[in-house]
TrEMBL record:
Family affiliation: Belongs to the FAD-dependent oxidoreductase 2 family. NadB subfamily.
NCBIfam families: nadB
Molecular-function annotations in GO: L-aspartate oxidase activity
SUPFAM superfamilies reported for this sequence: FAD/NAD(P)-binding domain, Succinate dehydrogenase/fumarate reductase flavoprotein C-terminal domain, Succinate dehydrogenase/fumarate reductase flavoprotein, catalytic domain
Fumarate reductase/succinate dehydrogenase flavoprotein-like C-terminal domain ranges (all copies): 432-512
Pfam families: FAD_binding_2, Succ_DH_flav_C
Domain annotation FAD-dependent oxidoreductase 2 FAD-binding: ranges: 7-382
Name recorded for this polypeptide: L-aspartate oxidase
Cofactor(s) needed for function: FAD
Pathway in which this enzyme or protein is active: Cofactor biosynthesis; NAD(+) biosynthesis; iminoaspartate from L-aspartate (oxidase route): step 1/1
Keyword Aminoacyl-tRNA synthetase found: no
Keywords recorded for this protein, A-Z: FAD, Flavoprotein, Oxidoreductase, Pyridine nucleotide biosynthesis
Length: 528
């Protein structure tokens, strides 16, 4: 079954996908494939805010410098300057759309909205909506998208593959609907906004994280992936072995939160002059080391000294959520652990989101733009979503319109897909759990040559076992697992080739940075 062709097909409904849809819909027909529940994507769970130079006391060069420092020598400076310079106008676009950012109550404030500070930033430049910025932005943009007559939303679809014509151009995507019927969606331009790969790990900051399926879909068509080894672990995720994931925002430390070991000692000032405001890779490794040395399985994040009024004012969402889990953060420190949070690598793109595959674009966390380097600085993620979605939109709108070629199910050969095949969901869950355990054990915050080799062998054995199992190979969920498994193996390969410690990639065997380092490029064919 196929649908009428759209000018643009957007796969993913977070901030990047929603922004792009709104920017082009006045001129092009848009099909937006997004989950029925907004909380399935990472955007909605972003708490801290969006980094941009907004205060007259701040400057673009400072934001650029801070980003380059956090990226530990692997940022593309041109990409950093491009992103930072377009930040203020992107924020103004959100304000004009009605996003309810938190106002600064100080009548003498130099900027009307409250700006907080987070790790790696030398100034207050994080605009936010209390401690639920992602939710505020997503809700506002969804309302506008729903009201737009030229945007067709499809929340009943799961995309499994991209479609490619005989000339190598991307012409749309293949998926299944809620009735398990195959659907082909054709488009002149296809944009991946599918999120990162935190779902490759057992513990994440998002309840329903993607596992990099969009990255592999692009790679299957010939796109290059870059810097997969740089998986960011957020230093502070609520520790609750029996409950769902919940992020404790960077802003909690930005407003003065202290990290304590199990004896109550504040340990970050001993390790870094920036203390709790050091970049995330530094803080995550410090927490991980103290967890390994202790017996609790977590450290403490303490904000009791801020006082009840400040806590209730700045962190109402965190306060309410922790209370629902039996923790009064005005009286108790918060138990926290690092958890997989953000993929700094992804599908290689240029400043307009274009990939190496004609008519295929990638924006947001699924893309590698060069902005983040070896470590993403706090609150640069939503900034990247906004800036590159808007630049991608401008590029597509300025592209010459060619006569649309007639493409039907009869003239394209989509990859095999059998939605109605027998399917053992419990068995697949066991395979996913095994994959995630391998990645969490060997390809996490601290790595070693021995551990990466163990991961390579274990993933290869898992792949062999999967291939020997003949059940439902063409079932949509089976295909998605195969894609995640392929990305896991590519991540291990990229990590094993990096003979240094840099940013988020820390190796006990290569503890120092190399003198000459480059981004790590990889293609799907490299697995063969």
């Amino acid at each position: 079954m196929s649908t009428p062709a759209s000018d643009i097909l957007i796969i993913g409904g977070g901030v990047a996908g929603l922004t792009l849809a709104l920017e082009v819909a006045d001129h092009l027909s848009v099909t937006l494939v997004r989950p029925k529940q907004d909380d399935q994507g990472a955007s909605r769970w972003a708490q801290g805010g969006i980094a941009a130079v907004l205060s007259p006391d701040d400057c673009l060069d400072d934001h650029v410098r801070d980003t380059l420092i956090a990226g530990d020598g692997l940022c593309d400076e041109e990409a950093v300057r491009f992103t930072v310079s377009h930040g203020p106008e992107a924020i103004q676009w959100l304000i004009d759309r009605g996003v309810p950012f938190t106002l600064d109550p100080d009548p003498q404030a130099r900027y009307p909205y409250h700006l907080t500070r987070e790790g790696g930033h030398n100034a207050r430049r994080i605009i936010h909506a209390d401690d639920a910025t992602g939710r505020a932005v997503v809700d506002t943009l969804v309302s506008s998208v729903t009201a737009h007559p030229r945007i067709t939303q499809r929340s009943d679809l799961t995309i499994v593959n991209l479609l490619q014509d005989a000339k190598g151009r991307c012409i749309g995507a293949q998926g299944v609907d809620s009735s398990q019927r195959r659907q082909l969606l054709f488009a002149q331009h296809t944009v991946l906004a599918t999120g990162g790969a935190s779902g490759l790990y057992r513990h994440t900051t998002t309840p329903s994280p993607s596992s990099g399926e969009g990255m592999i879909m692009a790679a299957e068509l010939g796109a290059s992936l870059c810097n997969l080894e740089f998986q960011q672990f957020h230093p502070t995720c609520l520790y609750d072995p029996h409950g769902p994931a919940f992020l404790i925002s960077e802003a909690v430390r930005g407003e003065g939160g202290h990290l304590l070991d199990e004896t109550g000692h504040r340990f970050m000032p001993d390790l870094d002059p920036r203390a709790e405001l050091a970049p995330r890779d530094v803080v995550a490794r410090a927490i991980d080391a103290h967890i390994q040395q202790g017996t609790l399985g977590h450290v403490w994040l303490d904000i009791r000294h801020l006082g009840q009024a400040a806590i209730r004012h700045h962190f109402p969402t965190i306060l309410t959520h922790c209370a629902s889990r039996g923790i009064d953060i005005t009286r108790q420190p918060i138990p926290v652990v690092p958890a997989a949070h953000y993929s700094c690598g992804g599908v290689a793109t240029d400043h307009v989101g274009a990939t190496q595959v004609a008519n295929l674009y990638a924006i947001g966390e699924t893309a590698y733009t060069g902005l983040h380097g070896a470590n993403r600085m706090a609150s640069n993620s939503l900034l990247e979503c906004l800036v590159y979605a808007r630049s991608c939109a401008q590029h597509i709108l300025a592209s010459p319109k060619h006569a649309r070629e007639t493409v039907t199910q009869e003239t394209v050969s989509p990859p095999p897909l059998t939605p109605d095949a027998p399917f053992d969901a419990k068995q697949l869950d066991r395979y996913r759990h095994t994959m995630r355990s391998i990645m969490s054990q060997h390809v996490s915050i601290v790595r070693s040559d021995q551990g990466l080799e163990a991961a390579r062998r274990a993933l290869a054995a898992l792949s062999d076992e999967w291939e020997s199992n003949e059940s439902a190979k063409a079932h949509p969920e089976s295909i998605r697992f195969q894609q995640a498994l392929a990305l896991a193996k590519m991540t291990v390969m990229a990590a094993a080739k990096r003979h240094e410690s840099r940013g988020l990639h820390y190796s006990k065997d290569w503890p120092r940075p190399a003198l000459d380092t480059q981004p790590s490029w990889i293609k799907l064919d490299d697995l063969v």
